[in-house]
Amino acid sequence: MGALVAVNSYGPPMDDQFDRIPLPKEGLVGANTTIAAIATDLALDKAGCKRLAIMAQDGLARSLRPIHTPYDGDTVFALSTGAISPPEPFSRSLLVAGAMAADALARAVGKALAAAGRAE
């Protein structure tokens, strides 16, 4: 599982204080976008890639807050090389892959923010 992300989020990085929600200033609709790609060797069809992308979106919610605002155009794409046949049952394989994708994306956001000199 690999993740690549370009972070230009409206919401600031998530901190460990779950009782505080930052109140961001007014923005411009569509002015911010965080775009990501999740890649796996697991053989997934179109529906499997869609589910993987949906689950990977949780990585954005874990690392940026708020996310998916009217000011954001956040998107996650999923790609499959098809190199590895998923073990049965398929639903369990996809569950594990989705959880891994969310973790990978959250880490990728942290690394992107650190590389940009922002708080991780």
Question: What are the defining features of this structure?
Answer:
elongated, 2 helices, alpha+beta
Structure notes:
The protein is an alpha+beta fold and 120 residues long. The protein has helices at 46-63, 90-115; strands spanning 2-6, 35-42, 75-84. Helix 1 (46-63) crosses helix 2.
Query: What is the SS-derived class?
Result: alpha+beta
- Morphology: elongated
**Strand percentage:** 15-25%
Biggest β-sheet description:
3 strands, mixed
Measured distance between first and last alpha carbons: 21 Å
How many strands appear in the DSSP assignment? 3
Going across the major beta sheet, what is the strand order? 1-2-3
Query: Residue-averaged pLDDT, rounded?
Result: 87
Low-confidence stretches: none
Helix content: 25-40%
**What order do the SSEs take from the amino end to the carboxyl end, as H and E?**
EEHEH
Concise overview:
The chain has 120 residues and is of the alpha+beta class. It has two helices and three strands; from the N terminus they run ββαβα.
Protein topology:
Layout: E1 2-6, E2 35-42, H1 46-63, E3 75-84, H2 90-115
Parallel strand pairs: 2-3
Antiparallel strand pairs: 1-2
Helix pairs in contact: 1-2
